[in-house]
């Protein structure tokens, strides 16, 4: 067990590529299977073409992501270049003075009035001076190279997982002794079904949340409504804190984009105006979407899932919270099937009992 853990840690990048590829292939496999069973001009679509068409469909999502986020990033760069930090400090001077007075009165009476604004001014100046365009470009180029290798590896693995139908299942089953074969087949089949339903449910959840948030923000006239909706829908995958991060991102976008009325009260009103949209989206998610997804896929009690999610957060933070339910599903199904195998088939006991000496 220790040896296996060391191997997984040493080849962690490859393991990550494989896991991501398994997730992607599980999501788009129904599309590939559907296309393979269709006929065009009385000619059945071959598996290879079905896989390629599935990849083209999948490629639309990162393309949409780029089209939505690149304009926002470019505007943020433009805003940072044109930002008048003195004017910005003047606009937030009044609310900061209230906080300043409260801190001096209750916590730090030895501080002089205006210390908070002075520290904030120094921090902003240091932050601006620390930004170097050259180092930023080098970082972006290095990051782009890593992303390219990551995408290439995941695409290559996913392609063969889809094209060679059942290759992963056959490989796993070939390593299992005959005594455990039936239990292993049942475990793999049930795990695939549950995870596939769970991933399809998450895809539906993301789509519905995106539609609600994008529609609401567009009606309110919020800039970059689609970009905010995409981020909020995906970050919602992180249980409990995801919705908060989505709303904070929306506030950050509103505060950092150009406005005809660049006052603090205007930005505060914009932030308050968005709150009902996110609240309605969360009510629908918590009362309708999540119960349906978890009851039909994971089949576990809400308290059970709550504990598992926090265990995942303790082990691996945000990624652990996202991966907690799928990993728990695999372990849970494996345990149940192995228990049944032990009780019904006695797979962990010797086939021949030694005679007892009286």
Largest sheet report: 2 strands, antiparallel
Strand order of the largest sheet: 1-2
Series of H and E elements: HHEEHHHHHHHHHHH
Task: Compute the average pLDDT.
Answer: 77
Q: Poorly predicted ranges (pLDDT <50, ≥5 residues)?
A: 351-358
Radius of gyration: 27 Å
Strand content: under 5%
Helix and strand content put the structural class at mainly alpha
Share of residues in helices: over 70%
Please report the number of helical segments: 13
Instruction: Name the shape in a single word.
Output: elongated
What can you tell me about this protein's structure?
The protein has 358 residues and is mainly alpha-helical. It has a domain at 168-345. Helices cover 81% and strands 1% of the residues. Strands 1-2 form a two-stranded antiparallel sheet. The longest helix is centred in the last third of the chain and has 43 residues, at 302-344. The radius of gyration is 27 Å and the shape is elongated. Residues 351-358 have low confidence and may be disordered.
């Amino acid at each position: 067990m220790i040896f296996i853990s060391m191997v997984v840690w040493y080849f962690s990048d490859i393991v990550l590529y494989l896991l991501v590829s398994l997730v992607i292939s599980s999501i788009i496999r129904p599309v590939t299977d559907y296309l393979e069973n269709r006929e065009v001009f009385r000619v059945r679509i071959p598996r290879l073409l079905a896989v390629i068409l599935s990849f083209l469909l999948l490629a639309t999502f990162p393309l949409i992501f780029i089209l939505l986020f690149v304009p926002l990033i470019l505007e943020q760069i433009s805003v940072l270049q044109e930002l008048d930090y003195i004017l910005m400090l003047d606009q937030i001077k009044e609310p900061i003075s209230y906080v300043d007075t409260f801190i001096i009165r209750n916590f730090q009476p030895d501080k002089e009035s205006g210390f908070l604004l002075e520290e904030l001014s120094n921090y902003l100046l240091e932050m601006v001076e620390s930004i170097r365009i050259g180092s930023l470009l080098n970082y972006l180029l290095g990051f782009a190279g890593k992303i390219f290798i990551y995408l290439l590896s995941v695409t290559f693995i996913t392609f063969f997982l889809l094209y060679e139908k059942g290759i992963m299942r056959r490989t796993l089953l070939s390593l299992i002794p005959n005594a455990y074969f039936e239990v292993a087949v049942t475990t793999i089949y049930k795990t695939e079904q549950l995870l596939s339903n769970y991933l399809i449910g998450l895809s539906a959840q993301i789509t519905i949340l995106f539609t609600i948030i994008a529609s609401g923000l567009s009606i309110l006239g919020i800039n970059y409504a689609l970009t905010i909706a995409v981020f909020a829908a995906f970050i919602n995958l992180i249980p409990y804190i995801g919705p908060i991060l989505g709303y904070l991102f929306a506030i950050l976008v509103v505060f950092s984009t150009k406005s005809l009325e660049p006052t603090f009260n205007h930005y505060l009103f914009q932030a308050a105006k968005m709150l009902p949209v996110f609240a309605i989206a969360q009510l629908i998610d918590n009362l309708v979407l999540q119960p349906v997804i978890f009851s039909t896929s994971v089949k576990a009690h809400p308290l059970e899932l709550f504990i598992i999610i926090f265990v995942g957060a303790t082990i691996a933070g945000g990624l652990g919270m996202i991966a907690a339910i799928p990993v728990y599903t695999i372990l849970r199904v494996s345990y149940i099937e192995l228990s049944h195998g032990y009780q019904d088939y006695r797979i962990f006991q010797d086939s021949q009992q030694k005679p007892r000496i009286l």
